[in-house]
């Protein structure tokens, strides 16, 4: 069963910052392609919510799915994918998820 996804305020901000960084450092075209790649992965997660790897060490309810250099951090609740963050793989995930 396919479910919907919702982005937290921080995930929306993450996605915007990813687009801006990519546009400034590569191009607007590349930023649009990368944005689309992330959104496509979110759709795939909606098709199969358990496809991400569980974050047992820090947040047992969360999963991670890699998209190139970024990690989509999400949890499944009541047929909705709640996307908490979209972080660069080099970021301290544990510290950035401390509020969830």
Give a structural overview.
- This protein is an alpha+beta fold.
- It has a single domain, classed as 2-Layer Sandwich (YaeB-like fold).
- Helix content is 41%, strand content 33%.
- It has helices spanning 9-25, 28-47, 93-96; strands at residues 4-7, 53-55, 59-67, 70-77, 80-88.
- The radius of gyration is 13 Å and the shape is globular.
- The model has no long low-confidence stretch (mean pLDDT 87).
Beta-strand proportion: 25-35%
CATH superfamily, by name, is RelE-like
- What is the CATH first-level class name? Alpha Beta
What separation lies between the terminal Cα atoms? 26 Å
Element pattern in H and E: EHHEEEEH
Q: How would you describe the shape?
A: globular
Number of helices: 3
Average pLDDT works out at 87
Task: Give the helix proportion (percent range).
Answer: 40-55%
Alpha-beta content class: alpha+beta
* Biggest sheet, spatial arrangement of strands: 1-5-4-3-2
When the domains are counted, the total is 1
Query: How would you sum up the major sheet?
Result: 5 strands, mixed
Low-confidence stretches: none
Using the 3D structure, state the CATH architecture: 2-Layer Sandwich
CATH topology: YaeB-like fold
Fold blueprint:
Blueprint: E1 4-7, H1 9-25, H2 28-47, E2 53-55, E3 59-67, E4 70-77, E5 80-88, H3 93-96
Parallel strand pairs: 1-5
Antiparallel strand pairs: 2-3, 3-4, 4-5
Helix pairs in contact: 1-2
Question: What descriptive keywords fit this protein?
Answer:
100 residues; alpha+beta; YaeB-like fold; five-stranded mixed beta sheet; 3 helices; 5 strands; 41% helix; 33% strand; globular
């Amino acid at each position: 069963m396919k479910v919907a996804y919702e982005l937290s305020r921080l995930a929306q901000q993450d996605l915007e910052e990813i687009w801006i960084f990519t546009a400034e450092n590569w191009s607007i075209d590349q930023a649009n392609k990368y944005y689309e790649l992330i959104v496509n992965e979110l759709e795939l997660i909606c098709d199969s919510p358990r496809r991400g790897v569980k974050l047992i060490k820090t947040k047992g309810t969360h999963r991670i799915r890699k998209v190139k250099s970024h990690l989509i951090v999400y949890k499944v609740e009541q047929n909705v994918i709640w996307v908490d963050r979209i972080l660069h793989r080099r970021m301290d995930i544990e510290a950035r998820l401390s509020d969830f």
